[in-house]
Design brief:
The chain is mainly alpha-helical. It contains eight helices and three strands; from the N terminus they run αααααααββαβ.
């Protein structure tokens, strides 16, 4: 059976509304990345010298957040590349793939901290509270500064807002490590270091597990949350002249862009534009691929 085909391509859609990421925003992200990496190195060195697993744990969490920032920057650069003959959908999933890898690393780091933290609770080891406090105060200052830096544009851009919130969480983690250092200096109590490490580990594992289903759903081409395919079909069928909608598929290309494809049974080519307008205005779907089938070639659809 031959079908008359027509395709409507309308770009610029979103799973959610996001502010546009520009070069200035990327510059702020890069500055935040380098600052956070330097901080992580300082915390790891300080943690090894002081013998503090909580300080090393904070460094691991901070490193994960730094790489999240780097992934956002790389994804922005790659995502701007145009589609080619091989990557016909473009490179929009670079951010999702990078995020998937980062979640796995975050989860593994969290599990490592759980083991180390439990070990320190069972068998506390002497640690240098002064070094812990000094490095953690430095970390708190840098975390607060990078939070201020990443706050630029966070009101209008979800990625920047997540970076901002992560930096705030890092600052809270630094406060926790400072507390463990104070317990050592004031009370000569060492097991608090293991407790703080477990709290940081719990936060890291929670972050990775909570975000994992959303990332997997995008990689598996699942329909975006909040979109009901039956509702979409019912609304399109309300357009006069459309006999049937079938082979309906909706998926997120990445966290922002929704795509739809379907077969539409109708005899008027103008109905493609009408359907695309409904999808854009009522369902926020800006990229639709609609194949037109005439009623003569799909008689059963109009019965």
């Amino acid at each position: 059976m031959k079908h008359a085909e027509e395709h409507s391509h309308i770009h610029g859609g979103h799973c959610h509304h996001h502010g546009e990421v520009n070069e200035k925003t990327v510059t702020y992200l890069l500055i935040s990345f380098f600052i956070n990496m330097l901080l992580s190195v300082a915390e790891i060195v300080g943690g090894i010298i002081a013998g503090s697993v909580s300080l090393i744990g904070d460094a691991l969490h901070n490193t994960s957040d730094a790489f999240s920032i780097l992934i956002a920057v790389i994804a922005f650069k790659i995502g701007r590349k145009k589609a080619d003959a091989k990557y016909t959908y473009g490179f929009k999933r670079a951010e999702i793939i990078g995020g998937f890898v980062n979640l796995i690393l975050l989860f593994i780091s969290g599990c490592y901290l759980v083991v180390e933290g439990i070990g320190r609770l069972i068998t506390p080891e002497p640690i240098e509270g002064g070094i812990i406090i000094a490095v953690s105060v430095l970390a708190l200052i840098i975390d607060a500064a990078t939070a201020k830096l990443s706050h630029h544009g966070s009101e209008h851009n979800t990625n920047m807002r997540m970076v901002f919130l992560y930096n705030l969480a890092d600052a809270l983690g630094s406060v926790g490590v400072i507390v463990s250092g104070l317990f050592v200096v004031w009370f000569n109590i060492f097991w608090v270091d293991g407790l703080v490490a477990l709290l940081i580990a719990a936060y890291m594992i929670y972050q990775s597990v909570a975000a994992f289903p959303r990332v997997v759903n995008i990689l598996m081409n699942a329909a975006p949350e909040g979109l009901d395919l039956n509702e979409i079909k019912h609304r399109l069928m309300q357009i006069e002249g459309i006999c049937d909608i079938h082979h309906l598929h909706v998926w997120c290309v990445n966290e922002h862009d929704v795509s739809l494809e379907c077969h539409m049974v109708a005899d008027d080519l103008a109905l493609i534009s009408a359907a695309a307008k409904v999808l854009e205005e009522e369902f926020d779907i800006h990229h639709s691929n609609i194949q037109l089938e005439t009623s003569a070639n799909c008689k059963d659809c109009c019965l």
